[in-house]
Amino acid sequence: MISALTDPSIFATSCALIMWAWIYSPDRLPRSYNKWIKSAAQVDQRLLVALRRCRYGEINYGVETGQAHVLQGMCKDYNWPLDYGDPVKSIPFPCEIVHMGVGPNCELHALSRFFKSFKWAFSTYLPLNLAITMIRSPSKKGLIYALKSSARTSSFLGTFIALYYYGICLGRTRIGPWIIGTSTPARQQIDSGICIASGCAICGWSILLENPGRRQDIGLFVAPRASATLFPRRYLLENQWRETLAFAMSTAVVFTCVAERPERVRGVLGKVLHQVLAQ
């Protein structure tokens, strides 16, 4: 069981760090990665601003801090009462704001997120898989494989996004209040980070829907990006030896594996290095 859960655990932990950083410190992520997550999440930026201001104390439930306008703009666009966006009158903000027009039901919102994300991912991955299949082996079997592969990956991404949003709702309305409480300070604590943490904690386990052979590849793809959220994006000149040391050690490990156990260096990188170093 430990062996089977190692790769999913790496991915789930990495995604938790990445999604936390995307909400509260997006500058710690590469610009292209940040843009891709934003496109997949399809979230109103005003909601992200409100969550960050709750986190950093600019929005306080029951206290007039002049921040009601942040979400009241959303209230106008979605035809909600303006009181929904007022932290003095709405303690906490209704979960309907997080659902962005789907309705007050958290489970219905999660389902709608899954289908919307599945459609977005399928329309992205199916043309790519079909193109690769037609180049490699244009056949009926290849076409079926491309459809199955696209559906599996789309289900994985759709579940990832649905679990992320539903995790937020679990923290805000379903489980959080029963554990933390329903007082104003408890509501502030939940919306200051607990609700986001619950979404981050469960979203990455959607990797279990992916092919077991791809879990390790995907996990090792996101792990460096997750690690980067814990370190500075740029080092001072006198500290750049740390990046040099990390690169040198990593290169030594990869080159050693290519020479002694080439099967452990997979993908295009492994093939290229094997041709360069072993031949």
Give your account of this protein's structure.
The protein is built from twelve helices and no strands. It is mainly alpha-helical and 279 residues long. Helix 3 (45-55) crosses helix 9 (184-203). The two termini are 39 Å apart. It has helices spanning 2-24, 31-41, 45-55, 69-77, 95-99, 106-136, 140-174, 176-180, 184-203, 212-228, 241-260, 267-278. The mean pLDDT is 85.
List the helices and strands and how they pair.
Elements: H1 2-24, H2 31-41, H3 45-55, H4 69-77, H5 95-99, H6 106-136, H7 140-174, H8 176-180, H9 184-203, H10 212-228, H11 241-260, H12 267-278
Helix pairs in contact: 1-9, 1-10, 3-4, 3-9, 6-7, 7-9
Q: Helix segment count?
A: 12
Shape: globular
Helix content: over 70%
**Elements, N to C (H/E):** HHHHHHHHHHHH
The gyration radius over C-alpha positions equals 22 Å
The number of strands is 0
What percentage of amino acids are in beta strands?
under 5%
Uncertain segments are none
Descriptive keywords:
279 residues, globular, 12 helices
Provide a compact summary of the structure.
Helix content is about 70%, strand content about 0%. The protein contains twelve helices and no strands.
